[in-house]
Amino acid sequence: MPAQAGGVGRRIAYYRSVVRPRMTQQQLADAACLSLGAIRKIERGERGVSELTLESIAQALGIDPSRLRADRGAAHTRVHDALPRLSAAIAAYDLPEDGPTRELPELQAATAEAADWRLSAQYTRIARTLPDLLGELARAFHTAAAAQRPHLAALLVTAYRTADAVAFKYGAFDLSARLIDLMRWAAPAAEDPLLAMSVAYVRTETFFAARAHAAGLRALEHAMDAAPAPVGMPAIAARGALHMRAAVIAGRARNTAAATAHLDQAAALAERVPEGVYAGTAFGPDSVRIHHVSVAVSLGNDHVHGALDIGREWTPPAGLPAERRSGYYIELARAQLWSGRTDDAFTSLKTARAIAPQHTREHPWVREDAATLRRLKRADAEALTTFAQWCAAT
Description:
This protein has 394 residues and is mainly alpha-helical.
């Protein structure tokens, strides 16, 4: 359904001319692959804006599409409405419907683009696009020659992981578990031990959802035992990511010794590689520092001071994936709230929203902390109320 252009057009003009002051209407039109006349009419409110056009404009502006929509509550509904299609797509993973199938390079590009959407928390795009992509990848995999099957299996794992990000973030934990099972099914055919480590990393979500933290820690440690030696940057980063994940789940299990040991291992490995995205997971010194905050919040009590110390001295660089940066501010906000720093906590939550609105809105800690702030705080009550309504805090 096209968006009403009045409010949307004003927001587009604002982000183009104020937030991005050096972007002219012509530059925006070129970047969004639209005509100059279309941009002018949209900004003046003289024509509606389709979802695809809105997302093209948002991408050109470097912002999340939800910041431009007139109905700020619509993203939640659109994603949830798309989940049945996603479920149907994976139900036929071994018997996909007939249909067109692109060549391997095109499938690689489409899968990589969707993985970028996951890292930037563009869940609406994922929910709309992944059902068809998963069906197409399944067709390609089951009809491929032997030489291409490992490549297609790796693409399936990546696409399942991208779809899982939506399922898990939006609370569809049964669907998330099914997607993770399919990742584990496809990974052996990819013949890539580092991809198997990536699957072990994602599998931890099932243990988080079930609050089976001790079992999740055992699963990660088993995956590390079975992993190849950390030789070369991809292998170092894969093992380091598992140590980061193990530290967090050990923190949730209140196992301070294990959490500290895994963080130390992750930090040592991070010194050997630059910050970057390896096999779909961000790893490096900055990611490890963010996980120090996460572990401190998980352990609670006196450990919270360590999170506050990091928050005073450091901010995540803009080059980190949006989902990871917003997660840092969400966890920092919780530490600040527990320490009685309500103004700082609210500022951190607003920063998280500015970085990745969809990720922030669906995070359960955001709802809990916004509701707590609303009860505790008297100053700036109107802004808190607006924020609480936005994230459906009760």
